[in-house]
Sequence to fold (98 residues):
Amino acid sequence: MKKAALSFAFLSMCAVAAMGAELTGYISDSKCGAKGAADAHAECAAKCVKGGAAPVLVSDGKVYKISDPAKVEDHIGHKVTVTGKVKGDTINIDTVKM
Fold:
């Protein structure tokens, strides 16, 4: 019985992980990170990314690396909601909505 319950719990966790995540936050830059999670930081974030810093997603104070930065290039400095899969501190973004 315990084995069946553990198997069910494991499969349930895998199903949730496969569904992905929806996170709301700011597209900031890797130089400023969480300090750049504000509307007032939009110009600075865009300048830093053009200067070579990587775009990052800041959601609830946590900074996520973005696996495909091209997906957020039009959203630097903006508050967005993204869907995708999180693995560690990196998010593989499927969709971005402002």
Notes: Residues 4 and 10 are 10 Å apart (CA to CA). The mean pLDDT is 86.
